[in-house]
Amino acid sequence: MAAHGLRDSKVTWKIFVDTSALFHLISKRNDPTKWFDKFLNEPYTLCVTEAVKKEIENIASTGTGKTKLRAQLATTFLKNFRVVSTHTNVADNSIVEASIETPNSLAFTDDKALRHRLKSLGIGVFLFSRDGRIIFSN
After folding, report:
1. How far, CA to CA in Å, does 70 sit from each of 20, 45, 46, 74, 75?
2. What pLDDT shows up at residue 25?
3. What is the pTM of this model?
4. What's the whole-number mean pLDDT along residues 101-125?
């Protein structure tokens, strides 16, 4: 099966979540685990890169309004995520790097440009449909 194909047996998937997806989840009060369970049928670990974590922490301390509130809530959620270091400090680039370098990895983003970059590299991506569901695209 392909390196980023679903339904490989006995693997633990690493799902790299970006800031936009995390903020969208918070704003819609959406629990992604039911969708990940539906698509994967395998264990998975939710991950963020160090760059994404720093981006969220920066927004939580310097942002304004709803964006600041979402970032503050996101920092609490991050306690349940595995944090992965990369060579880059740019959040989107770090998601790409981590997805390439980590076996059995997928990404979860609401960023159209990032989604296209990941897909062009053969990395499966979870994203939001227009009606708010989480769907998978590879």
Report:
1. 10, 22, 18, 6, 9
2. 83
3. 0.87
4. 95
78 domain residue, yes or no: yes
Q: How confident is the model at residue 134 (pLDDT cuts 50, 70, 90)?
A: confident
Structure tokens at 114: 């990032």
Calpha distance 130→9 (Å, rounded): 31
Total domains in the fold of the chain: 1
Nearest to 75 by CA among 90, 87, 60: 60
What is the span of the domain harbouring residue 42?
A: 13-137
pLDDT of 98 higher than 80 = yes
Q: CA 72, CA 85: separation in Å to the nearest integer?
A: 21
**47/53 Cα distance (integer angstroms):** 10
In whole angstroms, give the CA distance from residue 13 to residue 44. Answer: 4
CA 16 to chain centre: 4
Q: Is residue 133 part of a domain?
A: yes
Pair 91, 18: CB distance under 8 Å: yes
Q: Which amino acid is at 92?
A: D
Residues contacting residue 5 through CB under 8 Å, at least 6 positions apart? 124, 138
Burial label for 88, CB within 10 Å (0-12, 13-18, 19+), is middle
